[in-house]
Amino acid sequence: MTMHTLPFRPVLLSAVALLALSGCNRKAAPPAMPPQQVGVITLHPQSVTVHTTLPGRTDAYEIAQVRPQVTGVIQKRLFTEGADVQAGQQLYQIDPSRYQAAYDTARGQLAEAEAAEVTARAKLQRFKSLVQAHAVSHQDYDDALAAEKEAQGRILTAKGQVENALVDLGYTRMNAPITGRISRTIITVGALVTANQTDNTAVVTRLDPIYVDVNLPAITLLRLKRELAEGRITRQANGEVPVTLTLEDGSPYEHTGRMALSEVNVDTSTASVVVRAIMPNPDKLLLPGMYVHAQLDEGADPNGLLVPQQAVSRNTHGDPQVWVVKPDDTVELRQIQIGQAIGSDWLVTGGLKAGERIVTVGLQKIKPGAKVKPMEDAPAPSASDTSSQNKGQ
């Protein structure tokens, strides 16, 4: 019995020794890392006033080129260059002598026609009674009737000539066609002007009000129409779109205008639509051709969601994305849709909802599915102080 058990004892001792050696070499497992602390904000809906800021150019509300309608020599210039003129105010005087003579001649011809008509009418009255008494033939009566009608026609022709001569005489007084500011004069006293010439003698420009033309991207116009249809944006009570200006030197323009119209055709070279605003200009500060920035107040989004720009990153395709903290304090990377820039925030148009938490601090230290320790950031600005400016995104 003893002889059979002795060979197994060394093997047993070797196994025990190996186990003991293995226990000595085993190290204790490291402690688990605590959740990464991150700064977050909770999304709350708020009323956002939506603006679109675009560059534009001023354009004259009305502009009239002063040109002569008759031929003659300029006798007088009756305005001060660069001054404001009123519609109907006389600007130049063309020598009227030949047109006065033509008018007098036309009046004389009218008097002759009227005298001839008196004779023809009297003859017709006599023949009317004589033909009834068979003292004259019906042919003579018909001739007298035709002569009286012809005399009336000559009167009408003469009156037309008088009116035409009077119009030409009136054109010797070159008047301002509109109210506005007149340019420098192109001609001087003593110069010969001709009827229907192509060169201007001066230009009158109406400056109050004045147009501002801006190019609105077609994609922005589509977004506005879609958001209005969905009720995301509420228009002004009167239905108008207010417009404010910033001048080229950065100073604000004190008067507020309104959007007048938008073109129906998209410019294929710029993919934009021309939007025209009407601005009051009582001080004549704005001049045609000036460069300005126009801000169009489109309306208000009553349930806007704002995300800090620092919380938004871009994937390889350029799509915006944010880290969202789920209810179990784990994070996920989510693609979102953003609209306009509002100060240091983005206006969210899709991908997020109210009440969700967004990581704003510590984005580089987290990965999808990681456990985090969220710390709420400073509260969002009040809704009444929020406004939106489109920077072309």
Automatic annotation (TrEMBL):
Localization terms from the record = Cell envelope
- Molecular-function GO terms, alphabetical: transmembrane transporter activity
Q: Which residues form the signal peptide?
A: 1-28
Q: Give the record's GO CC terms.
A: plasma membrane
Annotated segments matching region Disordered: 369-393
Q: Which residues form the Multidrug resistance protein MdtA-like alpha-helical hairpin domain?
A: 103-172
Q: Example GO biological process term?
A: response to antibiotic
Identify the residues that the record assigns to the Multidrug resistance protein MdtA-like barrel-sandwich hybrid domain, covering every copy.
63-205
| InterPro entries per record | MdtA-like_b-barrel (IPR058626), MdtA-like_BSH (IPR058625), MdtA-like_C (IPR058627), MdtA-like_HH (IPR058624), RND_pump_MFP (IPR006143)
Ranges of Low complexity compositional bias?
377-393
Q: Where is the Multidrug resistance protein MdtA-like C-terminal permuted SH3 domain?
A: 303-365
Q: Start and end of every Multidrug resistance protein MdtA-like beta-barrel domain? A: 209-299
Task: Keywords in alphabetical order, please.
Answer: Signal
PANTHER family per record: ACRA/E-RELATED COMPONENT OF DRUG EFFLUX TRANSPORTER (PTHR30158), MULTIDRUG EFFLUX PUMP SUBUNIT ACRA-RELATED (PTHR30158:SF3)
Q: Family membership, please give it.
A: Belongs to the membrane fusion protein (MFP) (TC 8.A.1) family.
Question: What name does this protein carry?
Answer: MexX family efflux pump subunit
Q: Which species is listed as the source?
A: Acetobacter orleanensis
Instruction: Give the gene name.
Output: acrA
